[in-house]
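Please check this.
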Amino acid sequence: MKISHALQSLIQLGLGVLWVAGTAPQALAQSNWAADASNTPAVTVAALAPSAVSPAATGGMIGMEGASARGTALPGLPSSNAADAARTPGVAFSDMGQGTGPVAPLGPKSDGGPLAPNQFQRFVASASGQALPLYGYNLFNGNNFNSLTNVPVPANYVLGPGDDIDLKLWGSIDTAIRLTVDRNGQITIPKVGPVTVAGIRADQLEKQLKAQVGRVFNNFELNATLGRLRSIQVYVVGQARKPGAYTVSGLSTLISTLFESGGPAATGSMRQIQLVRDGKTITTLDLYAFIHSGKTAADAQLLPGDVIVIPPAGPRVAMLGALDTPAVYELKSPEEPLQAVLGYSGGLNVLTTPHKALVERIDPANGRAPRSVQERSLNAAGLQTTVRNGDMVTLLPIAAQFSNAVTLRGNVAAPLRYSFKPGMRVSDLIPEPAALIQGDYYTRKNNMVQFESGKNISVDRVAGDVKNLLEEINWDYAAIERLDAKEVKTVLIPFNLGKAIKDKDPANNLQLQPGDVVTIFGVSDLPVPIEKRNQFVRLAGEVMVPGVYQIAPGETLPDVVKRAGGLSRNSFLYATVLTRESTRLQQQANLDKATRQLESDISSQSARLAQNASDSEKNSQQAQAAAQKVLLDRVRNLKASGRISLEMEPTDPVMPPLALEDGDSILIPHKPSFVGVFGAVLSETSFIHKASHTVGDYLEKAGPTREADLEAVLLIRADGSVLSNKAQRSWLGFGHGAFLRTPMYPGDSLFVPELVDRRTAYTQFIQGAKDWTQLFYQFGLGAAGLKTLRN
């Protein structure tokens, strides 16, 4: 039944009194009267008695039909109509104003992978050897762009079905409610009624709602904001990476949706992207303007059902060479000035030559030779010439040539390019010898303060510093490299550096030309004669003044010892140790060669014995091979000393007139009183020297082992010479007795090696007899077989 307006007011007033008393009539919602009251306009409790409502007092909107009452009741007050609650979106009051974005799933997301090259890119790669990218398309590569959600709603946003409006009223009425725009574009405000908001801009919403509420209430204030926004469905078609239908936020624009969809494909246009609405083109977007200057004037807000059309790409040109962004560019018109296309890549570079650029053009009308090359200058007139579809523009770099430079390099203080002046000569480039002192000389010199304590200073260190602190200059030879442009070849002009700088000799103080390269050499770059080098030797031991001495070319050992004050009283001249670096290198090479030969001999012997050995002999051969391996390892670890034997007489030594070399080290020891015996002996030690004792006497004292090879004993003299046993080279052992009777002098040493082949003479004889017997046996069998065949 229908209820009059006056009766409705009485019912609402009675309900308000009951709620204030805390006794809300639960049966009211079930009565026919309450059902009939559902056709009346809704009024919230807060509007009647806001101060009397408690959280415990439950209630809702009365008389609101579920299809139109899409708002949310006050917190803690469930709807009195279960059917209405089921049809009301589940949005709590705490969600107001949070703008949680579209709830519908989005369309197909772009994978953002790299684009496959199109036909024009492949053509450019085959013609130039360079794989050029499409300009601007990397903007969409690897992009994880999400829908616009938690962003302020723009003022030009147009409301539509599905948008949430957070409405707050205070003053004569006090309420806060979330209302959702229904499919008819309306919201229903309690006690005010339906209000159409679809099509209203966001900045006009408060004005529209205030006018509608003002028809019913006075003395109030109103605030309306947008909460959760609707989702809209748009379509991306044409030459897109991922064409299809996309469900995006209501805040989405043309540009943001392009990012969501992945942008154009390799065949799609970046210059003519269209937004179509109801069959009409709303706007045309040029992404080049967006990329270069951020212009978004052509961007537009999307509405449900909008279609984004990406047409095929327009004319394209390739820009390569001396520019910052070589790529394939799309033209907006069939032809564009070259200056405009260069503007896309950042303009002309200072490293690009303005005199010439090459344009390769395609002319399909010429069937036999459709491609041609044009030359253009990059001046004002040349930049206004146009390029068209298929052109390949190559910008050339500037030449590396200097117009007025002379280069100075090598052992100089400042290896640089210097400005050329007319009439310039070598002495102008290098005005004084100080210009040849390298800068790191002073660095090394300053580092010498690290040795101020004196603990780290040694004779070797001082000798190295004196010799290596300054790189010596080759004053006799320097060179000028000059380009002969007519013959297209380099001419080398040598000159005497000393005469050019010190003497200003016109024959050597050559006149320079632009582009010349002057090279100054050091003595280490081109070895000079000995008399032109600084040579140093180290003299130590039993001399009156040990130290580092600079020697003159051809100076001998006796000369240097004399300069050092002569020998001391305790000197042992016979055992003088003279080491030389060049000799050490040669000795090490010979030692390495001997080691390889010994290794080859041991391997051959082991293989030969293994072929003829019986089972009982294999164990002994394995032990012998292990011993030989140990011996070989010892030989490998030997290092050459570079010592030169002076071969002086032990009883009356006299220094030979040996010419010294740079880096020689001379050590004159004091006279020892012992001799040494080491190797395969029971007692490796030193014995007091006795003038009457011989090699045999000291061997007896040391006690040779069973594995000692007495025929291979070596006598190492104190002067570095070695005396071997002649019995080792004789089958019958002649010379062994004479070797044992050899006298030994102070500082001498005996080395007793171990047997390489540890088989006894008897074992060797039996093994050989066995081998010969087997050979004769095989020979007899062969002869018998041959006789049988003949018969």
In short: The first strand starts at residue 164 and ends at 171.
